[in-house]
Specification:
By secondary structure, the protein is α/β, with parallel strands linked by helices. It has 2 domains: 15-163, 3-Layer(aba) Sandwich (Rossmann fold), CATH 3.40.50.1970; 166-353, Up-down Bundle (Dehydroquinate synthase-like, alpha domain), CATH 1.20.1090.10. It is built from 14 helices and 8 strands. The chain has helices spanning 26-33, 46-62, 77-87, 101-114, 158-162, 166-193, 199-221, 223-244, 253-265, 273-287, 292-301, 315-324, 335-338, 343-352; strands at residues 15-19, 39-44, 66-71, 94-99, 118-122, 134-135, 146-147, 153-157. The longest helix is centred in the middle third of the chain and has 28 residues, at 166-193. It is globular and about 60 Å long. Bound molecules: zinc ion. Zinc ion is lined by residues 127-128, 175, 251, 255, 273, 277.
């Protein structure tokens, strides 16, 4: 008899609102998620607050919600702790993360610690954390992302997203193409370790990579279509992680490589999450026997880096990160568990894929 898969909880966003200038509807949107809410804590970044704070705040106040704004500048556990101490006595009914990856991550973690519902309002389409329960914060004892609660809602204003620097959108594409190697790693773990594999979640994540791989030329030519497609694909990838109950469909060896780069760079600037992950995907695709050149061309089309030096990394950084990557998360079986990297193999791989 075949053993049934282990049980897990699927927590999904309840409502997702996407469209031009929908930030003006954030108040009624919160109300529709919680009719009895009275107060919200809005966690944001300085630039976003200056750019769109007024419109967001007036919509919340028009919906009879008391607001308290908190500006954060980094995504670290110190910031989360400070914010938690500051907000807990206010007892907000809702936490909103309004901004880029850092604001959304800090807000998601804070909401989780306060046991309050969380609304994700991203202003850049740079990674799939906008709809998933996973957060990346510095200063925790794990080098990879950790699980908090899934956002109860996502509000994506395509007008605001279009004002973000193009580099962030390109980074989002890097985080999307990554799903092809993440899913391959998951299949490998199923085949070689008997790990639970969720076909539906895997297909959903795979599809969000596929659309970028197949349509990058079209998306590059039409900016509005590009933003809408990338943000929908990122939300969908995040939902795939919700369905899987783990980050498996979204994060494989290419993510471990990215975490290892942060480690070897020792806190120095080493590109955006999606940029590092995109470069990692080119190399992991080759190890998996996938069409790595198509991954590379897609990233180029979307304006994302494909070479280490474009994000300030040296050849040695890449080699060290490739060798180190799997050791950061030994329990996550990936292609790097199978093809054990040494310096020679790592250098050959990076050179063959033109990363160095
Ligand atoms: Zn990612």
């Amino acid at each position: 008899m075949v053993a049934s898969p282990p049980s897990h909880l699927m927590e999904l966003p309840r409502k997702i609102l996407i469209g031009d200038r929908v930030i003006a509807e954030v108040g009624p949107f919160v109300r529709s998620l919680d009719v009895s809410a009275r107060s919200v804590a809005v966690i944001t970044g300085r630039v976003v607050k200056e750019r769109a704070g007024v419109s967001c705040n007036s919509s919340l106040e028009d919906a009879m919600l008391r607001t308290k704004w908190h500006v954060v500048s980094d995504a670290s556990m110190d910031t989360v702790n400070r914010l938690h101490d500051k907000i807990k006595d206010d007892r907000p009914d809702f936490v909103i993360g309004f901004g880029g990856g850092r604001s959304v991550d800090v807000a998601k973690m804070t909401a989780y610690r306060l046991s309050k519902p969380f609304l994700s309002v991203p202003t850049s389409a740079s990674h799939d954390g906008i709809s998933s329960p996973f957060v990346s914060v510095r200063g925790i004892d794990k080098p990879h992302s950790i699980k908090a609660n899934t956002p109860i809602g996502v509000l994506a204003d395509t007008h605001l997203l279009s004002q973000a620097p193009p580099r962030l959108l390109a980074g989002g594409c890097g985080d999307l193409v990554a799903k092809i190697t993440a899913v391959k790693d998951w299949e490998l773990a199923r085949d070689e370790k008997g790990e639970y594999f969720g076909t539906y979640a895997a297909n959903l994540a795979y599809m969000s990579a596929q659309i970028i791989l197949e349509e990058s030329e079209k998306l590059k030519k039409n900016e509005r279509l590009g933003i809408r497609t990338v943000v929908e694909a990122l939300i969908s990838a995040g939902v795939a992680a919700c369905i899987a109950g783990s980050s498996r469909p979204c994060s494989g060896a290419e993510h471990l490589f990215s975490h290892a780069l942060e480690y070897v760079a020792g806190g120095a600037e080493c590109g955006l999450h999606g940029e590092r992950v995109g470069i990692g995907t080119i190399m992991m695709a080759r190890l998996h026997g996938l069409d790595w050149e198509n991954v590379r061309h897609t990233l180029e089309d979307m304006g994302a880096p494909t070479k280490a030096k474009q994000i300030g990394l040296t050849e040695d950084n890449v080699v060290q990160a490739l060798v180190k990557a799997q050791s950061l998360r030994p329990d996550r079986y990936t292609i790097l568990s199978k093809v054990k990297m040494d310096k020679k193999k790592a250098r050959e791989l990076a050179a063959a894929t033109k990363v160095i």
